[in-house]
Amino acid sequence: MSHDTKHRLVYMANQISKAFAHDQEDKAVEEISNHLKKFWEKRMLAQIFEHLDAGGEGLDPLAKKAVAALQRSAQPA
Amino acid sequence: MGLIQETDYGTKPSKATALVTLTIDGQSITVPEGTSIMRAAAEMGTRIPKLCATDSLDSFGSCRLCLVEIEGRPGTPASCTTPVGQGMVVHTQNAKVAKLRKGVMELYISDHPLDCLTCSANGNCELQDAAGEVGLREVRYGYEGKNHLDAEKDVSNPYFQFDPSKCIVCSRCVRACEEIQGTFALTIDGSGFNSKVSAGINEDFFDSECVSCGACVQACPTATLMEKSVIEVGQPEHSEVTTCAYCGVGCTFKAEMRGEEVVRLVPYKDGKANHGHSCVKGRFAWGYATHKDRITKPMIREKITDPWREVSWEEAISYAANKFKQIQAEHGKDSIGGITSSRCTNEETYLVQKLIRAGFGNNNVDTCARVCHSPTGYGLVNTYGTSAGTQDFDSVDEADVILVIGANPTDGHPVFASHMKKRLREGAKLIVADPRRIDLVRSPHVEAAHHLALRPGTNVALVNALAHTVIEEGLADEDFIRERCDWDEFAEWAAFIMRKENSPEATEAHTGVPAAELRAAARLYANARNAAIYYGLGVTEHSQGTSTVIAIANLAMATGNVGRPGVGVNPLRGQNNVQGSCDMGSFPHEFPGYRHVSDNTARRILEMDWGVSLSNEPGLRIPNMIDAAMDGTFLGLYIQGEDIVQSDPDTKHMVAGLSAMKCVVVQDLFLNETADYAHVFLPGCSFLEKDGTFTNAERRIQRVRKVMAPKNGYADWEVTVMLAKAMGMTMDYSHPSEIMDEVARTTPSFAGVSYEALDKLGSIQWPCNEKAPTGTPVMHIDGFVRGRGRFIISDYVPTDEKAGPRFPLLLTTGRILSQYNVGAQTRRTDNVAWHGEDVLEIHPFDAEQRGVKDGGWVKLASRAGETSLRAKITDRVAPGVVYTTFHHPLTQANVITTDYSDWATNCPEYKVTAVQVSLSNGPTEWQTEYQAHSEQARRIAPPVAAE
Amino acid sequence: MRIFVPRDSVSVALGSDKLAAAITAEASRRGANVSVVRNGSRGMFWLEPLVEVESDEGRVGFGPMTLADVPALFSGDLKGHPKSVGLVEEIPFFAKQQRLTFARCGVTDPVSLTDYTSHGGFKGLEKARAMTPAAICAEVKDSGLRGRGGAGFPTGIKWETVRNAQAPQKYIVCNADEGDSGTFADRLIIEADPFCLVEGMAIAGLAVGATRGYVYLRSEYPLAISILREAIAIATDAGLLPDFTLEVREGAGAYVCGEETALLDSLEGKRGMVRAKPPIPALRGLFGQPTVINNVLSLAAVPYILAEGGAAYAAYGMGRSRGTMPVQLAGNIKHGGLFEIAFGITLGELINDIGGGTASGRPVRAVQAGGPLGAYFSPAQFDTPYDYEAFTARNGLIGHGGLVVFDDTADMAHMARFAMEFCAHESCGKCTPCRIGSTRGMEVLDKIIARENVAENAALIRDLCDTMKFGSLCALGGFTPYPVMSALTLFPEDFGVTSLPAAAE
Questions:
Q1: Above 0.90 for ipTM, yes or no?
Q2: Which CATH code for domain B392-571?
Q3: Which residue is closest to B596 within chain A, CA to CA?
Q4: pTM here?
Q5: Rounded to the nearest 5 degrees, what angle is found at the Cα of B116, between the Cα atoms of B114 and B122?
Q6: What is the pLDDT of residue A76?
Q7: C436 vs B75: CB contact, 8 Å cut-off?
């Protein structure tokens, strides 16, 4: 546990992923990214995207996929 | 404006539907079967003299003043205990009963002090009134006979006095303690002439089991049990009906006044949440409103290390507005935000979120519900469709089995607890799921059928195992599920719940609850005609808080226990207006009425009304605000009526975040812990000083009425308006009713709410609109609000906060009856007599191992920090579990709590912290430093003489 | 040879246990073939311990027996024994009785099931088993049996009410909290013929559909408690109560717990306080369930009624008072004891002819009928027939059947004060007229006895009695005025008033 914001965001993303881990993977990815979109402020999203771009250390595989999916959909077409 | 007089009908109303017609004193009257003659007479305006009868209690028949004659029946039956009969002819006034009544009254007065003129009840004494009604003119027995005139007063209770010399032994106090409060603290000691009211076994009130709810004082017809405030000040001369500002029960009180001075608060019989009952906080602990610690002048300071400087309202407001504008200019519009309070009115909360969304131009608004019931919102919206409890409180009268999970109603929601206990005494069965043996598990005439003493942090496993038993043993309500829910979702959920890992036998390893006990509890719940679930922060304040709410919702749906009186899923809200502050759009992701900020329809309605464009992206939650402050991107915060330093987890991190901000504005009654880190202090006012509404745990919107002028000059909503205007917004309201009108026109579930309607109906439970013009006591009656009830899989994920070699015990926290949350109010009342400090409850086994003595100092340490407090050795907690309250800032229980939080809502995991307990000599270094810092931070500079 | 030595409280108090031992010892010393049977009391207390020896003509009585009289029992000359009273059943006091309820008392060994059945026991229960509950209630109604505890409410109607009530559990409660001074019939029958009560309660259970019964027995009757418990165990073990669970609960010495609703509170484990009626116990009694609560004597009358038919019982008595009443003669009376007789006999016959006048030999001055709260009668009223309505007409009550006799040395003002004192002592304190009124009554009577403002105080006591009589919640406060007012009315001279004072208003 750390007070570093990035670490907290990684922890939160992993926690959310675990709550949906029982779903089929594509559904879980959708649920997780929806959750992030619905509740995370843009600074938080920016930081987690940045972290993912930097390799996404500490993110669970499912969380990684969901953050990536959200990042893709958030980018202007 | 005079004193509100409530009619006392003498006995309770009959619930029968069949009607009976009788003649009383020559007048025909029709009343429901089972009505007493006394009540029937009262309903037609005939007062039969009475002393032991009052309509809040079961009739007793002891005073023998209400005797009447009934044609064709022998004797003179008591009208309070005799039900009406068809065709009955009753005479309430004739020579025979007049003589009898006078004879009885003569006996009463032969043992009563003749000090009416100097008596505190003078002018409001039922004995005095009755003596007048029966026309007593002399007492032929004289006054030299045996009497109780020298009986000693008991002044041990801080709020009321017991003067047995004035007692008429009507037993109203004893009965109130039993029937209304359910504590059974009082009894009649002795017999015959020596009968006397006694608290416990010849104890004084303070040392007895008495919980100081005031029911006995309320019931007393004389000055025997009397508020000390009335003895001091005299009888009140006018009153106003208002709503209590403590817990989420939302009791209605009459504030009885002399001029602008409160004489007493008296529970209001017509209060729909409390039905005339109260607890020690609402009834007596209002003295904080005039406490010397109240700050009534605005103050500012450049740096938090400076002393405070008292300034004019104009200066304070413009200082704050300029700072905020400056921060936004330098760091962008998202660099500031605000926090609303569940202590404030709906109108005030609404204005703060409006100021942030429309004035600050972002959605960085959050509220203290973040740390209590945010999981309730998420869990119930997703399963049922509404972010609120499903029932009204009265629903408990129909419940046959009551499941209490992670709530301690007798301490946290005492008035509802009394209501529940009454139902339990009538025979409803109780299941308690709590790590601690709370009072409800076993108290006078109440005993839980099952106490599932689970390990902290294993709620989901426990509730899943209950559901597993229901499905496995074929106890599900298939008809209900087919009719109300999505069958495929149910089937998927049922398959999940039937997994072996969710069986009671498997979860026992996590929860510590024996499988057989859990199965028995599940059967009891599932087989009940009506089974209701009540839960509290023991459910929500976990890393899986939301999952537990969902699991509970699943369980209730699977057994068909939703959508009618007597059932449901009922969050017990901690604060007076948690429900309301959430309803009013205090969360960063949703507008008033739980509409997501990305909901275009909702946003357009508000944009049209407010005349600005609004952000469609969620804002920051409190913990993320603090993180962003540490990152240097969030630098200004407006906090109305909240003390996040004391109430939020991981104090050290919180303090660091606040210290990093450039402008913290605190609006509060007192210089609280958070104000130590503030630059602007805006004095707030108490609920007695403003108009508005609170919404209680049953979605009941009730009026708060101003009984005295704001001591600080402005109601809180007016201060927000001034700040908004200084920030450049247009905000014009002449009265809070206009704010509610705005809520109504922009929020569909509030469409029918107005002050006019509230005055007319007394209170309204939302949704209130065209479909439900008088509100909605029980929800989901004809189907779930979201359409079909949704089963959601709730997997048990153990918390990362685990006991281990360094921190082998699990700490859980809670509340005590006499104190309220951070204690800002109750610590400034005589309630401290009951709970002067927070103590650590520890099992004798764990205490023995550590050499801990009862009452001795111990150090409580976790990964986050450490604090010291005194130990209380008790087997209320299981071995391995310790418990404390968080009412006192000196204890700083939240120095210990970690920043683990709920996966969905970030509601902090207050209920599970791995700790170690060791011996200590006194306060820790942190506590000493903290106190020194507080003293430093609260200096107020002496006023500078004008030049 | 069988020798009967009673084992009831009175005889034991008078040494019957030692007597029984001495008889056994004497018999073995002499090698006589004697079996000692511990029977119940016949109810002739002036003869206790009354030892009976079986003979060809019947049972010959010897009493009051002392240890010194034992050897003579074996002398062969029974008639010449100094304590011989002849054939017991020919003693006039006994011979004049009409024993229906107490028929077996003193005859049998109280805990012998064989004795009980061979004397007609369980015939009523057997008949009841073959009847519908409605028919049992009808039989009891036909008998005209009224509550023997004092209120005189028709037992059959009470049962019918309970029978018609719908509830998962019903109860039979027997009130054996016999607290009236000068009464002992409950104790006597429980100690002499406990199966009779057991049978009566079992019949009541069948009649109303109750499967549980409680006997609330005062703790001052330890012998009765143990005998009844023994009898219940014997009957249960013998399979005679297949669908009825019976339990003895001990009272704790409060007079008011003889009041039925206070008794129920006490049975429930609460402090015994009078409950306001309605609801009546028949609908909401013990633990809130429909409950038959009857006195011992009412329940004990039932086996006869079922065995012989309601009409047979109703053939006794007068007016609306049907059947027999076990009258208990006590106080200053020559022949104190239990006398069961059909209603209709006069008070004078009971006191003078049966009781033989005072024990002191002085003239009778007053008789208190119906316990400490019953009215006093003067010899001028000795023509009053023993009948509920006739007693009521003379402001008196039959109550539990006690008659306490006083000779001409009694000071009736003190007796009036005693009534108030008794009420003050026993008041539960719930209702005001009784709680305060009894104490004030004592104070006012003290003033009268001290001859202070006698006229005003006599008027005040009369007003107070009205307030208590019509205003009290239960019979304790409601009946205390009876002895007070009857004493004042009949014996004004003891109060220092020459004639009856008028009410103050």
A1: yes
A2: 3.40.228.10
A3: A38
A4: 0.92
A5: 155
A6: 59
A7: no
